[in-house]
Amino acid sequence: MSETITLHSFGTNDRSGKVRWLANELGLEITEARVKLGEHRQFPYRDLNPFAAIPTVQWRDQTLIESTAICTLLAEAYPERKLVVAPEEPARADYLKWMAICSDTLENRLVETTLASEGIMPPEYKALHERTLQFKLRITLEQMPKQGFIVADRFTLADITLAYSLRLAIGAGLIEFADVAGYLEPLMAREAAQKAEFFSSLKQ
């Protein structure tokens, strides 16, 4: 019998998408707990997540916050699936590098740019990040493979995190789908990604 996580989210297109895709790769059952915009800043949700952020996961009598930390903990709980690159593997440094590029260098700026475009955050955020993102994304596209996986010659959590950043960048008009089609299309074909509706907002 598979384990179950309870996933608190706004929907399929926020950062919970990374957790949802990973959970499907791991064969976990997902109990969806939708949070309305604004409710995340109020109690009782803030009893779960004091930072008033999405997503939050309840799993094995634990309450987990921060999407990258959640995904890392879940993936490491199932080492036989090899969705993380272990410390003893030669590709470990590249794995950590790409996880940091996605979650630290790109993701926060891309999320704020997206929210500004949707009128949820002030429009100044889009202008603030645009020039930096254009530079960072250009380097990302130069460094990433045109086809195949980002590290270790296999699908890992790093591919999920990179796919999320690329999806946001395409949605914000900062890159074209054609720029990354060779990399993204095999990921889009994965059953777990489709079940999670991870790419449902992507305009090709």
Mean pLDDT: 96
The count of helical stretches stands at 8
- Helical content (DSSP H or I, runs of 4+): 40-55%
Which parts are unreliable, with pLDDT below 50 for 5 consecutive residues or more?
none
Which radius of gyration do the C-alpha atoms yield?
17 Å
CATH topology of the largest domain: Glutathione S-transferase Yfyf (Class Pi), Chain A, domain 2
Distance between the termini: 38 Å
Strand order of the largest sheet: 2-1-3-4
Order of helices and strands: EHEHEEHHHHHH
CATH-derived architecture of the largest domain: Up-down Bundle
Biggest pleated-sheet summary: 4 strands, mixed
> How would the global form be characterised?
globular
Protein name: Glutathione S-transferase
GO molecular function: transferase activity
InterPro entries: Glutathione-S-Trfase_C_sf, Glutathione_S-Trfase, Glutathione_S-Trfase_N, Thioredoxin-like_sf
Keywords: Transferase
